[in-house]
Fold this sequence. Notes:
Strand content: under 5%
Distance between the termini: 124 Å
Number of strands: 0
Mean pLDDT: 76
Shape: rod-shaped
Low-confidence stretches: 1-19
Number of helices: 5
Helix content: over 70%
Radius of gyration: 40 Å
Amino acid sequence: xxxxxxxxxxxxxxxxxxxxxxxxxxxxxxxxxxxxxxxxxxxxxxxxxxxxxxxxxxxxxxxxxxxxxxxxxxxxxxxxxxxxxxxxxxxxxxxxxxxxxxxxxxxxxxxxxxxxxxxxxxxxxxxxxxxxxxxxxxxxxxxxxxxxxxxxxxxxxxxxxx
Length: 162
């Protein structure tokens, strides 16, 4: 009898509360699944990962899928599935085109930015070279002035030593 409350507590921890809606339960399941996927934890439904009829899984097998839906679905259900799949394909195709366009425009912008930076650095290098050559003239002038200024002083000092 002592084990019954524990079992009840465990089941209430995993089951949704009567007050929560089905959406809350689905949201929690989705979050749990995303966390499992992120941390690489194998879920208890590992068999679903290799489900050959789940079109969104890596183990999808078209012949098995076709056989299953032809066996289980009515003609109206097949038409509805076809329409839904067409919409999904168009949506995925549209998303793919958008991503390609967006990445292409980012690539073009990056190329232009690199070209502009290269031009800016070339101008900066030219300016630095020009500035360096202009600095050499005053430096040479200063050293000549110092030499000319100190020459009479050196002469007067040298005459004292004789």
